[in-house]
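Lecture 7, part B: from sequences to assemblies.

Below are the input chains for today's worked example.
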Amino acid sequence: MSDDSAMGRRRWLGLTAALGAGLAGCKHEAPVAEAELSQLGKPVSAYGERSAFETARRTLPETPTPEVASSRTPLADSCGILTPSSLHFERHHAGVPKIDPAGHRLMIHGLVDRPLIFSLDELKRLPSVSRIYFLECAGNSGSEWGQKTGGTAQQSHGLASCSEWTGVPLALLLAEAGVQKGAKWLIAEGADACKMQRSLPVDKAMKDTLVAWGQNGEALRPEQGYPLRLVVPGWEGNINVKWLRRLKAVPEPYMVRDETSHYTDLMPDGTARIFTFDMEAKSLITFPSGGQKLKSQGLYQITGLAWSGRGRIERVEVSADGGGTWRESKLQEPRLPMAFTRFDVGWNWDGKDAVLQSRCTDDTGYVQPAKDVLVGVRGLNSQYHCNAIKSWKVTMDGSVTNV
Amino acid sequence: MFRRQKRARRLGLLVLVAPLGLLATGGLWAQSPKYGLGRAPSPEEIRQWDSSVAPDGAGLPEGSGTAAQGREVYANRCSKCHGAKGEGGDSVALAGGQGTLKSSKPLRTVGSYWPHATTIWDYLNRAMPFKNPGMLSRDQVYAVTAYVLFLNGIVAENAVMDAKSLPKVQMPNRNGFVADPRPDAGKRTMR
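Predicted structure of the full complex, as structure tokens:
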């Protein structure tokens, strides 16, 4: 377990060796030429586009019904902690509705003193907050339960993204409506074709849930719930109801399809866990990761993302020998609760086979488990909420694959 | 609720200890609603929007249907994706699978997995058929619900499903769900 030997330290941070190897691996490149200066560039534009040289995309599934499907964020192409709205993962149950915000309303009713209907304009007149939170589908990394794991970071972990969300605290709206004593749950309903709904505990609604209209400095994207959605920090994606139009305060959960048939975790004894809301601490190395290639031996920065639905990431350790020894990784700032945290650590690749892993610890003391530990407790039928340590194998030719 | 009560107590304390401050600011510590935005929906607006159905049957509307009546609607609207007998096809199986939940190949269907019959009504009503959600009448939703239950051997072909009888249907996996016990793996003391 311990890797504090002089050998270990040299392998990880031996800068002299790393630099030497890096220089040794350096090939002669053509001299840098002067850029063409005479041609004018493009004029100013009304809504920006990325460089034509940038090609990161969400992966699309092959399915006859893409309206009930998901697309995945290219995490290996990401930098920092924010996901561009255009690359935020999608999961829809009846397609993306086209909603005119002028006609959209949010109704709050049920066990409240004052049932209320808000227009978007009215909601925006209330005090708002902006918070950076990750959002992760409960089914993210579902592939990792099986023998055939995801081949790239996008395939295995791409149902997670991180945005700055702007909106009004749901607690404020509930205070306006006067939630009654017997109301323990809210039934949240969207305005998509299937009127998707979930039961949300009032305690969580009062604690930190947002009714959001903004994402990354502009209005929500239609795929993310335009014009209004729930943001339930740290909890499984499905409960962050998009296209939000109704909240009904009730005494008990309604046991709707998406909290009984779906998003419940089947255990080896045949029982199933229900209302497994927290997305537990999880990390992923995004470089080097599956599908990438190291061109030469020498110094690299291993980097990746860590997050926990229960709080802040306190620690990320990285292993290059399949979990035999671990090295503390640097955590970049900002390090926000229930948000992506970026980590990186210098690594001198000696050109030999290596199995890279990361494991994170959150501020509750919870440590991301190895896959066999998780499977030992939950078996292989639970489908959802997989947060096992992910392994990437670097082979002698520099290629990186899933193992 | 607990938090709200605590806050109410705190506000009450402020009212006691800071009456002068309140007077000076023009009584801004008013009782809620604090912002007074939004409007009250009419009972008709609430009735139109509120389609949610609870396990105890709250929200189930008038109407009724039997499996015999649901057979034809199912054949026309559901069988293409879910199979003639609910065995599945382009979409998930609705019937079968009872006794498989502990096996290496569990089959989660309405009959083997769903804990409440009211959920079938609610989901059919709001989300099915996939391409035309909301097209079925209330009686048709009751009838197709009855038919799916019948395919699973849970109700008889002529059992009438309505707002009273549906919540009383005993689903085979009614007691199969347990509360979240996590953290269950990977828990360790901070070093």
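Note for the exam: Helices of chain B lie at 2-17, 19-24, 43-49, 67-77, 79-82, 117-127, 138-151. Keep this in mind when comparing with the next example.
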